[in-house]
Amino acid sequence: MAQVSINVQHEDFDAGAELDALSGNGAAGAVASFLGYVRGGDAGGILAMTLEHYPGMTERALADIVALAQERWSLLGVRVIHRVGRLLPGERIVFVGVAGSHRGEAFSACQFIMDYLKTQAPFWKKEETANGAHWVDARDSDDAALARWRP
Amino acid sequence: MAQVSINVQHEDFDAGAELDALSGNGAAGAVASFLGYVRGGDAGGILAMTLEHYPGMTERALADIVALAQERWSLLGVRVIHRVGRLLPGERIVFVGVAGSHRGEAFSACQFIMDYLKTQAPFWKKEETANGAHWVDARDSDDAALARWRP
Amino acid sequence: MSITILYFASLREALGVEREQLSLPPGIRDVARLRVWLLARGEDWAPLAAPRIRAAVNQVLASDATTVADKDEIAFFPPVTGG
Amino acid sequence: MSITILYFASLREALGVEREQLSLPPGIRDVARLRVWLLARGEDWAPLAAPRIRAAVNQVLASDATTVADKDEIAFFPPVTGG
Q1: How confident is the prediction for chain B on average, in pLDDT?
Q2: What is the fold of A3-147?
Q3: Fewer CB within 10 A of the end CB, N or C, for chain D?
Q4: Do D81 and B52 touch (CB under 8 A)?
Q5: What is the dihedral sign for C-alpha C19, A88, B73, B67?
Q6: Cβ contacts (< 8 Å) between D83 and chain B: which residues?
């Protein structure tokens, strides 16, 4: 049975420590992970990003997504951390790490979880720029990414 | 132009620090990574794993693989670390991290680099178990994983 | 029938409402009927009519046909953009 | 024509040789001909005949048809298993 841990939190986290925990001291041969950041610097002059979520449903949606991944692949560990609240450019937003025996299942499950999270988990981003704040639009490419997992 | 860094070394590395460096303080929105470990514990009673390589060709092969990935995807950073020498169960063997603007290209390029590394880069694994040492056989599934990137 | 309704993100801001406790008349059996009833309260509620607005019933994504029952928690929100 | 040959991993162990400096007779123009010539030295070299054995010329993966020239570094090895 895969070890699953999901957190929705404002606090930052230590990605290296999360990877170490996923490897289970060598029980897993392969760990694939994804980190999403608040883009900064030249990328559209973002001053800050506020992540709103739907408490309760968020955790439930993430648990459902991870359970779907576990039905498809044999996994040894799954870790999901999603931050909420106001974050600055360069800050981590999301971490998804998947441990498996081989790299194929770890990569696929990690990408699957991200694609579902992007389209099914109730988080919303509001960007602050020099021209004011606006809600980020959903991207059609995220729906397309999801579609390829469907039978 | 993507920042590329490749190391073949015996020493361990800090995966968290590598991820932080790849994010470029928010210049990249997405970092996908893979970590491979010496499997330990119950997995076949491996006592140690020795990684032999072909000095010179290894670095060249990895650079060629990363260049191929850069031809296919627009990447912001690529980091490859492969350890050689004798490693114990639970130790890191390989790290591939790819930074991009969006997750699709980061995931694809990371998996592409791993699939090529597994089949084209001159590393060889020798396992020590209670029954003696033996060279690890190449897996057909690795050739299959490579095939899907070909036109 | 008494329900709680939550609004999130741009929809919450457009409506100026985060949460409502409502007593519904009989016959509001599903999400589609609930939405029509909410919209009938006046044009301030027009943002709720946008087809892109999603619904959840008891914290699970819902469709127009999803049943609405007493004590349910219903949420309306725009497409999600986390990750 | 003088070349260096390197052997790696299980092939190196099977042959008991890690590296050779060789002067080749004329006519050994490609990897296929080089392999035949090396095998002709005696049955100790039989492990080199296995079809799974790969070759590299000057640190680039090679095929049977890859040209061999003076001062080249040729390597023979089993399928790789890193990562």
Answers
A1: 94
A2: Aldehyde Oxidoreductase; domain 3 (3.90.1170)
A3: N
A4: no
A5: negative
A6: 36, 82, 93-94, 114, 117-118, 121, 123
CA distances from B82 to A98, A135, B50, B141 (A): 20, 42, 12, 21
β-sheet bridge partners, residue C54:
C77
CA distance B8 to B85: 10
Q: Which residues of D touch B144 (CB under 8 A)?
A: none
Judged by 3 or more CB pairs under 8 A, whether C touches A is yes
Q: Please name the helix (run of DSSP H) or strand (run of DSSP E) that holds residue C5, with its range, or none.
A: strand C2-7
User: What is D2-77's CATH topology?
Assistant: Ubiquitin-like (UB roll) (3.10.20)
Number of Cα atoms under 13 Å in the Cβ half of residue D80: 23
Q: Is the pTM of this model over 0.90?
A: yes
pLDDT tens digits along A19-73: 999 998 778 899 999 999 998 766 568 999 999 999 999 999 999 999 999 999 9
| C-alpha R_g of chain C | 12
Cα separations in angstroms, B35 against A19, A64, A113, B125: 8, 26, 18, 16
> Which residue, among C8, C4, C1, has the nearest Cα to C58 in the 3D structure?
C4
CA distance B23 to B18: 9
Residue that the structure tokens 């054995």 belong to: D53
Domain residue extents for chain D: 2-77
CB–CB contact C82 A60 (8 Å): no
Calpha distance B97→A17 (Å, rounded)? 16
pLDDT at res. A4: 96
Chain D residues with CB under 8 Å of B6 CB are none
Token duo for residue C65: 């046909």
Q: CA torsion sign, A37 to A40 to A45 to A47?
A: positive
Task: Check residue D82 and report its DSSP letter.
Answer: -
For residues A32 and A73, the answer to whether their CB atoms sit within 8 Å is no
ipTM score assigned to the predicted complex: 0.94
pLDDT confidence of residue A2: 78
* Residue ranges per structural domain of chain A: 3-147
Task: Tell me whether D34 touches chain B (CB under 8 Å).
Answer: no
